Amino acid sequence: MRRTPPNVVSCFLLIFPLIFPAISGASDTIEAGQSIRDGETIVSSSGKFELGFFSPGSSRNRYVGMWFKNIIVTTVVWVANRDLPLIDNSGMLRLIQPGILVLLNATNGTVWSSKSSRAVENPVAQLLKSGNLVVRDGNNDENDGQENFLWQSFDYPTDTYLPGMRLGWNFVTGKETSLSSWKSTDDPGTGEFSFHLDPTGHPQLLIRRGSAVQNRIGPWNRIRFPGPPNPREDPTYRLTFVMDEEKVYYRSDSVDRSFVSRYTINQSGVSQRWTWVDRTRGWVIYFSMPADICDTYKLCGSYGSCNVGSSPSCEWLDRFVPKDPEGWVRADWSNGCVRRTNLSCQGDVFLKYSGIKLPDARRSWNNAKMTLNECRQECLRNCSCTAYTQLDIKKGSGCLIWYEELIDSRTMSQDGQAIYIRMAASEAHSGGKEREVVLIASLVSVMGVILLGLSLFLCIRKIRKNDTRLGTLGKYKYHEKHPDLPFFDLSVILKATNHFSDNNKLGEGGFGPVYKGVLEEGQEITIKRLSKESRQGLDELKTELIFIAKLQHRNLVKVLGCCIQKEESMLIYEYMPNKSLDVILFDQTKSRLLDWQKRFHIINGVARGLLYLHQDSRLRIIHRDLKASNILLDSEMNPKISDFGLARSFGGNQTEAQTLHVVGTYGYMSPEYAVDGMFSVKSDVFSFGVLVLEIVSEKRNRGFSQSEYSLNLLGHAWKLYKDGRSLELVDASLDHKLYSPEVVRSIQVGLLCVQQNPEDRPTMSSVVLMLGNEGEIPQARQPGFFTERDVLAGQNSSGMNATNSTNEVTITMPEPR
Ligand SMILES: *[C@@H]1O[C@H](CO)[C@@H](O)[C@H](O)[C@H]1NC(C)=O
Ligand SMILES: *[C@@H]1O[C@H](CO)[C@@H](O)[C@H](O)[C@H]1NC(C)=O
Ligand SMILES: *[C@@H]1O[C@H](CO)[C@@H](O)[C@H](O)[C@H]1NC(C)=O
Ligand SMILES: *[C@@H]1O[C@H](CO)[C@@H](O)[C@H](O)[C@H]1NC(C)=O
Ligand SMILES: *[C@@H]1O[C@H](CO)[C@@H](O)[C@H](O)[C@H]1NC(C)=O
Taking the CB of residue 710, how many other CB atoms lie within 10 A of it? Predict the structure, then answer.
């Protein structure tokens, strides 16, 4: 019946004149004791609305309802007894004392009645100009205001919102006013779709199917609910939003009373605003929700972002990656995305994402008084806080904070807002799409800057005064370019290491001894002391200083500062209680500490750290000496890559270079590097592959012996892999059986990384994805250097330190200049 074309309606009226009464009473009221029968109606004084009995569609049931009187397309806007139909036309709507409307059937049984909490002496039922059927005290004025009505149909809407209605909640009575769809065009009964103002967290408009959310509009930003139904400024409407302890509601009023419009939710869950156009005698859709696929609630999962402009529509927010990349490719976006760099809580930053529809705010927290800066501090304080934004875009104030994964956001070209999302500190500097970076200003960092300035000043002075050799360092001007690298005084280091006592010595690195120290404040540190003899080492140290100062990632060892004084050059790192990976991994007893889960965690961590070096850090950095002894472990066995002394940085797109100056460690070096001096990120990938196989097998690649064959670890792993016996690579005592798919996957990724041809090797970003997913991984080809002899024949190994207990030594071959 609704929206039936005019000619059909007219025929209908001719054939069944009783269904819609041709004659209507002039009155807009029903007095106490009076009634209207089927066939009689009342009409609002404006002549706009009419109330009476009707049958919807092809149904023969009778309902009491309200429709537009002067609109040729019969449009029912309200139904009294929507779930309780009358079966014949003997119904009667009566107002009884002390102010209740009752709908009686043929036997005078009550089919439906209005409720009232109050009694008045002289009740009157009246159909107001707005289309609100009210029961009020006849002794009062009709314009008394909604609070004084005994009952009003505006509190019990069906599928239609009319201007002036309050959609929302009365917290005192616990009553909600919401819309719900008809069951069908023949049945106005309560259908499955409903339209709500949901005040949980921060008010939003929700379309639900049953209890499940289908679409979301909002959250309220003090001007409108951003999203299609409230597109920018609407001159025909005045919006009112009221929120206090007792109530929250949303109300819109037509500016021009002659303007006819309504808002509905139909049986397919589409909510629409309609406007009557007299000239064409038809309803025109002013807007519709959902408007496009991106209005589907949570389509792209957590941290996904829907963009209708792109195909497929789901994207991940910048600096996030899909949780299930395989599924993502198959357009299964429900698993959503995760930060590509995990949060560490301390020192996190916030990045600004603009032009988006704010995420679901049902579990958010807000404060209207806070400034944006206070909001950031509040969010920073609590590690479970994921994002914040402005609450009130009108005043530019207030605070809205999320404590959970962000869901259901989309890009919006016009009505979008900005949100500040919590990110690991390293993301602030790493490449991504253009984003404004908001660094967290804390007292600590302010103090840090002051201390830094002071130590820099002292350090520079000392460099100038004390040491001619260090004068050459001056040409690097690193102290000016890299003010984020603090300098330690030698006396502090001497005290911390007990004058470099042997008790404090941790081991011997490529360029000299490594010590443990304890600063006066109790902080434990690691000191890498450049050996005095090693002229070569100073250059390496300089490089390391400059690069390292710029790098920050949870899987890279953190540099605290340096000390360059007198004959001494030192790097100061955070202390790693579990030493380096080789110490644990290749020790029969200690390696028991590393169950499979820890190993997998280490593999993943190293992969992320390396990915950061290769792609995400400001400079593209190739480590060139990745090996087990350069992987340090913190107290929780989190891996940290150390020793960037050999790192080379490339500007621009340069990814490959040739050098005469071969540095690295046998066993980890890729063929093209060891033999031809060609290095690229793929050389690091090779070393990573070796490392993975070592972690899995607990065996060193170099020094691995298999009496039957002259195979090294790579060759051995490859052979087992070809025979489908990969799991035999793992020590039988390791509790890996539970995780065998993960183990097999790691071995396969490891073998992919050590393939002969650099182009066949995956990039670190694919490695990270492959390690994390359950899906298909390409078959590996034969590794480079798969027998021991390949490599070392023809290589002069005299540069190796013979006294070293392991055969894993960083070698350098100085280039002639
Ligand atoms: C119903 O009520 C009306 C008015 O009170 C009365 O005239 C009529 O007889 C009643 N009908 C029945 C079936 O009781
Ligand atoms: C009238 O309504 C009453 C109460 O709902 C019901 O018991 C009765 O059967 C109805 N009579 C008819 C004729 O529908
Ligand atoms: C609801 O509205 C949409 C959009 O106008 C329309 O495509 C759909 O057919 C409607 N559903 C029903 C049951 O009328
Ligand atoms: C952080 O916020 C969550 C969610 O509001 C709360 O449950 C938790 O107690 C807060 N933690 C702290 C330390 O304030
Ligand atoms: C990042 O966090 C996820 C979820 O807590 C965890 O599974 C994963 O191991 C973490 N990654 C790192 C490198 O810590």
Answer: 12
